[in-house]
Amino acid sequence: MANEDADLKYWVAFGLIPRIGRARFLLLEKHFGRLENAWTATAAELRAAGLDQASVTSILASRPEISPEAEMERLARPHGRALNWNDASYPGKLKEIYDPPPVLYVRGEITPADEWAVAVVGTRRATPYGRQVAEQFAGELARNQVTVVSGLARGIDAIAHRAALDSGGRTVAVMACGLDMVYPPEHVKLAQEIWERGALISDYPLGVQPRSEHFPRRNRIMSGISLGVLMVEGDVKSGAMITTHLALEQNRDVFAVPGSIYAPTFRGNNRLIQNGEAKLVSKVEDILEELNLTMVAQQMEMKEIVPADETEAQLLRYLSSQPIHIDEVRRESGLPISTVSSALAMLELKGMVRQVGRMSFVRVREVGPAYG
């Protein structure tokens, strides 16, 4: 593990060099094993690895300008980190797609629970109907322990992220720029909440500005880390439709909400349904059933959720949809930290609370009558 950690800075450094993408990372890794060896390789050694002359020239010209150590320090400043595709924390489903990013930049936490994820996509100009659908579906997915993935854009994306957060669930935003900036800029506060209770991820290094050509490539990650994609509202030529087509190529399930035949923003939805490319959905259970996630929802519905004792009941009074650190719960309750820790662990097992990173907790379900 130590050797892998030490080698990571060279993955990050190579990610800054023009012309070095998935295919050339594969060549370098196969030939050199550790990318530290590739970083110090001669032109002849790089050609022997299978790189074309233009790529070799790009590496030789870029290396003197890049400090792998300095790049790792820059990445840590916005509380970011990097994962290469060999890291155990790298999303498993993302490895399966044709073009997985060799390096993924993360702000926040990717957890095993994010293996159960659905991407929610749609237009930036949401109609009242589209807004209502996004809020309902994203909120109910989150309440059913499904991570909501979207792209932090205006409109449906932002609505989906907000609904997931307000429901006490996890959400992941995939960005089309470096983690040291937020686009659109008015979503800075939303991005911070996502980072604190989920994750911001990107395959673009720090300093990379959002450009029009970045968004379609960003979309392959949104669908790639998800079990399926829900099209809320979009025209036939839209970023949301690009995401659904990428999902189909990646063998992901696609879902669409039907819309008015007179509304341009629903032409994409209706075409997907008409062509048999998407399953028509009218409620969140349609998605859960198709993805074989209904057992989780059914078990949560069948179980009577009540505090087991006065300690659990007391702690629940200090929890809401807003994250609160365990130290604050201890101060508010006046209970010993060992009691608070064990009780919160039990409440999390029951599905009543969720840890959202750095020992902060939210309440995720309404509870039955209090103990006693």
> How many helical stretches?
17
Q: Compute the gyration radius: what is it?
A: 22 Å
Unreliable stretches (pLDDT < 50, length at least 5) are: 299-304, 368-372
Q: Give the mean pLDDT.
A: 89
CATH-level-2 architecture of the largest domain:
3-Layer(aba) Sandwich
CATH class of the largest domain: Alpha Beta
The general outline is: globular
Query: What's the number of domains?
Result: 3
Topology:
Blueprint: H1 2-14, H2 22-32, H3 35-39, H4 43-48, H5 53-62, H6 68-76, E1 80-84, E2 103-108, E3 117-122, H7 128-143, E4 147-150, H8 156-166, E5 171-174, H9 188-197, E6 199-202, H10 214-224, E7 228-233, H11 239-249, E8 253-256, H12 267-274, E9 279-280, H13 284-290, H14 294-302, H15 310-316, E10 324-325, H16 326-333, H17 337-349, E11 353-355, E12 360-363
Parallel strand pairs: 3-4, 3-7, 4-5, 5-6, 7-8, 8-9
Antiparallel strand pairs: 1-2, 2-6, 10-12, 11-12
Helix pairs in contact: 1-6, 7-8, 8-9, 10-11
List keywords for this structure.
single chain, 372 residues, alpha/beta, DNA polymerase, domain 1, Rossmann fold, Arc Repressor Mutant, subunit A, nine-stranded mixed sheet, three-stranded antiparallel sheet, globular, disordered C terminus
Briefly say what this structure is.
This protein is α/β, with parallel strands linked by helices and 372 residues long. It has helices at 2-14, 22-32, 35-39, 43-48, 53-62, 68-76, 128-143, 156-166, 188-197, 214-224, 239-249, 267-274, 284-290, 294-302, 310-316, 326-333, 337-349, and strands spanning 80-84, 103-108, 117-122, 147-150, 171-174, 199-202, 228-233, 253-256, 279-280, 324-325, 353-355, 360-363. The longest helix is centred in the middle third of the chain and has 16 residues, at 128-143.
